[in-house]
Design brief:
The complex is a heterodimer. Chain A is an alpha/beta fold. Chain A contains eight helices and eight strands, in the order βαβαβαβαββααβαβα. Chain A has one domain: Rossmann fold (3-Layer(aba) Sandwich). Chain B is α+β, with helices and mostly antiparallel strands. Chain B has a single domain, classed as hypothetical protein PF0899 fold (2-Layer Sandwich). In chain B, strand 1, helix 2 and strand 2 form a beta-alpha-beta unit. The chains are: A alpha/beta, B alpha+beta.
């Protein structure tokens, strides 16, 4: 009779993606280009915040935007209308960007001439958190109308993000969103997360966020 | 939602090990998945059954062990387990420090497989 053997494997399921993500970061370091990965639910205001941020930083930094969408190019068209290089990646049903898709997108850009690449990930708080894109910074947006309970429902996203932007902060007065409780929940999951309160509509907090981003990108690229 | 991609990756890895170990049939695959992952056990098995048809892994059962969230205190290096969805405040039980780093809970790992 055939005997059952135990074969050790000890391999990370997502190792291919992790290896490729490190390659992406190595390439970015060589070219002195900074990659920022922006993640949120659909409708939290990623594209609007990107447009606002571009206004504040475009005089000092050369920026390109990579838009990931399941099957449309409306976001890339909005960015390109501002005279900023925009690349649209259709994920073709995929719920997230992985490092191979990002590498392909970056290959289509003249990275040597770009200080900052903004990746607008697919609108989704679950899947993008599982896949390292090779970015130098992960930013998540959580808009006030989504509710203050989201750290309880999507802990991984809060854990892997470096920056949390509480977006549409101008809605605070109209809602029962508990900002103090929300901050506390987010900081439990990730004590190092940097939190900004922003409204792209009123402009509240945009300068503080954009100035901080500018200094991070300049420090990375050795720009004075 | 991305269970299909993860499942494809599991299949590729086990088939590679099956070939190098002269396996004729894979019976069980043992996985370790962190509690922070949203993967649904039932769906991974469902996709696996579909993808593994007519391969050495056809009919193999996936056994998923959930790995708890473990943090390491940055001040005294003590490691401690937390239930991340219920905990109110993260504090080192030894020195009461509030700064810690995640050391497990995001895992996605194939431990081993039982095969003929």
């Amino acid at each position: 009779m055939d005997e059952i053997r135990l074969i050790e494997i000890k391999e990370d399921i997502l190792s291919d993606n992790k290896v490729q993500a490190e390659e992406v970061r190595k390439n970015l370091k060589e070219k002195k280009s900074f990659l920022m990965n922006i993640m949120s639910s659909p409708g939290a205001g990623k594209t609007t915040l990107i447009l606002k941020t571009l206004e504040k930083i475009r005089d000092e930094l050369k920026v390109a935007v990579m838009e990931a969408d399941i099957d449309s190019k409306v976001d890339a068209e909005k960015i390109a209308a501002q005279g900023i290089e925009a690349i649209q990646i259709r994920t073709g049903g995929f719920c997230h960007m992985d490092s191979t898709m990002v590498a392909q997108g970056l290959a289509a850009m003249n990275l040597g001439a770009i200080d900052l690449v903004i990746l607008e990930n697919v609108g989704n708080l679950v899947c993008p958190a599982e896949f390292d894109t090779g970015a130098n910074m992960n930013v998540m947006l959580l808009s006030v109308p989504e509710g203050d309970d989201k750290p309880l429902k999507y802990p991984l996203m809060f854990t892997i993000s470096d920056v949390l932007i509480v977006h549409k902060i101008d809605y605070l007065e109209l809602s029962d969103f508990d900002l103090k409780a929300f901050r506390k929940r987010a900081l439990i999951l990730n004590p190092k997360i940097k939190i900004f309160e922003v409204s792209s509509r009123t402009g509240q907090g945009v300068d503080e966020w954009a100035n901080w981003l500018k200094s991070e990108v300049k420090a990375f690229g050795g720009i004075s | 939602m991305h269970e299909l991609q993860v499942t494809k990756s599991i299949l590729d890895i086990v088939l590679r090990h099956a070939i190098s170990n002269n396996v004729t049939k894979i019976v069980t695959i043992n996985l370790s998945v962190g509690e922070l992952s949203d993967l649904e056990d039932e769906w991974i098995q469902h996709y696996f059954d579909y993808l593994a048809k007519e391969t050495l892994a056809e009919g193999a059962k996936l056994k998923i062990e959930r790995i708890p969230v473990v943090l390491k205190c940055e001040d005294c290096s003590h490691s401690f387990q937390v239930n991340i969805k219920e905990v109110k405040e993260i504090q080192c039980p030894e020195c009461q420090s509030k700064s810690s780093t995640l050391i497990s809970g995001k895992d996605y790992y194939i431990k081993d497989m039982e095969a003929i």
